[in-house]
Design brief:
Blueprint lengths: L31 E2 L1 E7 L4 H11 L7 E7 L4 E7 L2 H4 L3 H6 L4 E7 L14 E5 L2 E11 L2 H10 L10 H10 L5 H9 L4 E9 L3 E5 L8 E5 L2 E5 L3 H4 L4 E5 L5 E5 L2 E5 L12 H6 L5 E2 L2 E2 H16 L5 E4 L5 H11 L7 E3 L12 H5 L6 E3 L8 E6 L6 H12 L4 E6 L12 E2 L7 H4 L2 H8 L3 E4 L2 H9 L13 H4 L7 H4 L15
Parallel strand pairs: 17-20, 20-21, 21-23
Antiparallel strand pairs: 1-22, 2-5, 2-11, 3-4, 3-5, 6-7, 7-8, 8-9, 9-13, 10-11, 10-12, 13-14, 15-16, 18-19
Helix pairs in contact: 4-5, 5-6, 9-10, 9-15
């Protein structure tokens, strides 16, 4: 996510001022990611393809969307709050986005409030010409750098950590844009995937640890950079490969060029992409996400199944794991909870009574298939536990005789600082309670999580390497692979931004 900067006691990635949380919503008890990126070079329908790609990536961010296109002479931009379909299905908007090169961004907000100035792609005019960039991830030393840049006279227009990169490019003494970008990135820490466009080039970058995804595709003569392969599928493009950790991919009239200027680091791809974030039909790091989730469910059944009558997913994210669980346990799979797909964020919460009923806007028990049954409920994660309580209560009221909850991730005991919106540690249910305590809190007859080794076995066929974990799993293990400079130095900005704006 192009995170708005937040610092201790808050985690990097949001506003300093406490704002209304998404936690009041009916379907919010999951970590919230992040952002989706799309870029295309040498396409006569660049903006249209970008809009379609962003549609496919809408699950990665629902707060805002933006596209910047270049027609060979001028950059054209449209950025707006809301969903892709709210703005980029208007012909007059698309007609303005002329050019054969375009980049786009969908963003998830870490708070209920927002400002148009933080919507990406961000654009700047440099000595070498125009430059637009969009970012998925979080810079863990952004405030330290920002403070230094402000002291040197830089003027920041947003509260986004992405703007730090723009100012570092401006301060670089190198001549070529790729060298200036490389120089800028050598100063930053954290997790990031970037897609940028200049007057001559489309550029994609992954951080040296490869925490956030970025893939390369082709559609005829056009070359594409995007967060997930599902964005390639929607436009009929071919998946070529993942952009490698620490790789800078440059696409111009001469073709595709790869630069690897950073010291090699052990890869730490975010394991939660497989558990929840990515779309199930995507392929990430050579693995089909749907198949991985089924195998996670199967492993969960091997570790914790008990006698039951029916396996029910918490839709939609729990479905693949529940299918794998049911197949392994040889227990019928059924949709005991029905989801309403036509409701977004909660739109009315005027009273405590209405707020309490909010979960039913998205979920309703299928009582005919639950009454008198010993139910295994499968979900991908428990964060605060708020939604789990309501779901369990709903299933219990529908007549289930027993409810056993099974979770396809290990307990989330730590906050993420690499581009995923998680609550502060003291708000995480698993940080406050044992598994049995969590079961009592949620109101289930039993509760079990997949083990760390079981998760790794399902994802990559091997146990977790305790000395050098194969993935970033800090939210389960407290093993942070990248320094948390801003957090650890305990720097607290007094006033990061005096302007409060809403649209």
């Amino acid at each position: 996510m192009d995170n708005e900067m937040r610092f201790p006691p808050h985690q990097p990635g949001s506003r300093l001022t406490p704002l209304p949380s998404h936690s009041d919503g009916p379907d919010d008890d999951h970590p919230n990611e992040e952002c989706g990126l799309f870029g295309i070079y040498d396409s006569s329908d660049a903006a249209a393809h970008t809009a379609l790609g962003l549609h496919a990536l809408q699950h990665r961010g629902q707060e805002s969307a933006g596209i910047v296109a270049y027609d060979g002479e001028q950059f054209h931009s449209h950025r707006a709050l809301g969903l892709v379909g709210d703005h980029f299905n208007v012909q007059s908007v698309m007609d303005r986005l002329e050019g054969n090169v375009a980049i786009g961004h969908v963003r998830y907000s870490t708070s209920g409030d927002t400002a148009l100035r933080n919507v990406q792609p961000l654009f700047a005019e440099f000595k070498f010409g125009g430059f637009a960039v969009c970012h998925n991830g979080n810079l863990t030393n952004a405030y330290s750098i920002r403070k230094e840049l402000v002291q040197r006279g830089c003027l920041f227009q947003s509260t986004s950590d992405t703007e730090t990169i723009i100012h570092l490019i401006a301060k670089s003494e190198y001549g070529r844009v790729v060298d200036r970008l490389t120089d800028a990135l050598s100063h930053i820490e954290g997790a990031y995937s970037l897609v940028a466009v200049t007057q001559k080039k489309l550029i994609g970058v992954r951080d040296p640890y490869g925490v956030r995804p970025l893939v390369l595709g082709r559609l005829g003569d056009a070359t594409i950079l995007t967060s997930e392969t599902c964005a390639l599928d929607i436009i009929g493009a071919e998946f070529i490969r993942d952009v490698e950790p620490g790789e800078i991919v440059v696409i111009d009239e001469k073709g595709l060029h790869s630069v690897k200027p950073f010291n090699k680091r052990p890869q730490k791809f975010c394991i939660f992409e497989y558990i929840y974030f990515a779309r199930p039909d995507s392929i990430l790091e050579s693995r089909n996400v749907y198949n991985v989730r089924k195998e996670i469910g199967a492993q969960l059944a091997r570790e914790s199944h008990l006698e039951s009558d029916i396996v029910v997913p918490v839709p939609d994210s729990g479905v693949p794991a529940a299918i794998g669980y049911a197949e392994q346990a040889n227990v019928p799979f059924d949709l005991g909870i029905i989801r309403n797909h036509y409701v977004g964020r909660t739109f009315i919460e005027p009273t405590d009574q209405i707020r309490h009923l909010g979960v039913r806007l998205k979920h309703n028990a299928n009582a005919a298939h639950l009454k008198g049954k010993r139910v295994v409920l499968v979900d991908d994660s428990i964060v605060r536990g708020t939604t789990s309580v309501k779901i369990v209560e709903m299933v219990r009221n529908a007549g289930a005789s027993e409810i056993h909850m099974r979770i396809s991730s290990p307990p989330i005991t730590e906050s993420c600082f690499y581009g995923i919106d998680t609550p502060e540690r003291e708000q995480l249910l698993a940080a406050k309670y044992s598994v049995s305590g969590m079961a009592d809190y949620i109101g289930v007859d039993s509760l079990a999580f997949i083990s760390d080794d079981g998760l790794y076995h399902a994802v990559c066929g091997a146990k977790r390497d305790a000395k050098e974990p194969q993935y970033c799993d800090a939210c389960f293990t407290n093993s942070y692979p990248i320094r948390l400079t801003d957090r650890d130095t305990e720097q607290h900005p007094n006033l990061l931004a005096l302007l409060d704006e809403q649209f």
